[in-house]
Amino acid sequence: MREVKVKVRGQLFLEMKTTEMIGRRRFEGKVAIVTASTQGIGLAIAERLGIEGASVVISSRKQKNVDEAVEKLKKKGIQVLGVVCHVSNAQQRKDFIRKTVEKYGKIDVVVSNAAVNPTVDPLLQTQESILDKLWETNVKATVLLLQEAAPHLQKGSSVVLISSIAGFHPQSTMAMYGVTKTALLGLTKALAAEMAPDTRVNCVAPGFVPTHFAAYITKDEVVRKAAEDQTLLQRLGTREDMAAATAFLASDDASYITGENLVVAGGIPSRL
Ligand code: NAP
C-alpha cells in the first residue's frame, strides 16, 4: 500500500491518493456528472468517483480548463468526458446532459457543486444584479439542471448538493452567499421528498478548504490560523475530505440516507 504523508501545522496526516489505498469500486458501471469540476473540490469529487469505477462527466465554464482536467483524470486511468457548462446557461445545461446521455446512455449520480461569491458588501448594500446572480448560480441552476437530468436518472440514483458551513451561520462578509447555501439545505429536503423513492438527495457542507475559491481565507497566515482555530481538529479541510464524504453519500453505503446534510468542517459548530 502506498501512503502519501502530508504535514499540516506540524502534524502528519495520511492522504488517500491511489486506487489501492481507496480499495473500493462502489461506482463500477455508474455514470456520474459533476458541475464546476475542473479544479478544487469538484475535480477531487470527479477523481474520487472515477477512481471508484464511475464514468465521470466533468464541466466548467472554460474549454481550456475542461480540456486540462480531462487530461489529468485520463492520466489516472479514469473514464472521463468533458463538457463546457456554465451552470446559469440554459443551452449549456441541455448540452451537458445531452452529451452525457449520448455517450453513456444514463445518469446515476449528479453532484451540483457550482457556486459564486461575488461580493463582500453588507446585504443592505448589495446590488440587485448581484443578489440575482447569487440566487441564479448557487440555487436556481441546481433545480434547472436536475429538471434536465431527471428523465435519465436511474432507479437507485443519487444527487449530492454542495452547500457550505456558511449556510448554518451566514457571515457578514459573505452574507447572501451564506443564505444561498442555507437555501440548499432546504432544497435538499424538498428534492429528496419529490425524487423518492428512486433517487436519494443529500448535501455536503464543507468547512474551509484551501482552493482558488477560498484563497482570500487560506492564503493570509493570520486569517488562515483563525480559520484553523475555529475547528476542533485544528486544521483546514482537504479536497479529498470533501470528495470522500460526497462519494459516501452518492454510494450505496448511504442507501438508507436521503434529505440529509453532512457537515465536513473539522468540528466547526453547525447544529446539534
Ligand atoms: P474552486 O477551486 O475555485 O473551483 C471552482 C470551479 O468552478 C472551477 O472548476 C471553475 O472553472 C468552476 N466554475 C466557476 N463558476 C462556474 C459556473 N458558473 N458554472 C460552472 N462552473 C463554474 O472552488 P471550490 O472551493 O472547489 O468550491 C466548490 C464548491 O464548494 C462551491 O459550491 C463552494 O461554495 C463550496 N465550498 C467551498 C469551500 C472552500 O473553503 N473552498 C467551503 C465551503 C463550500 P471555470 O473557471 O472554468 O468555470
UniProtKB/TrEMBL annotation:
It comes from the Eukaryota. Pfam families: adh_short_C2 (PF13561). SUPFAM superfamilies: NAD(P)-binding Rossmann-fold domains (SSF51735). PANTHER family: DEHYDROGENASE/REDUCTASE (SDR FAMILY) MEMBER 4 (PTHR43943), DEHYDROGENASE_REDUCTASE 4 (PTHR43943:SF2). Belongs to the short-chain dehydrogenases/reductases (SDR) family. This is Tropinone reductase-like 3. The lineage of its organism: Eukaryota, Viridiplantae, Streptophyta, Embryophyta, Tracheophyta. InterPro entries: NAD(P)-bd_dom_sf (IPR036291), Sc_DH/Rdtase_CS (IPR020904), SDR_fam (IPR002347).
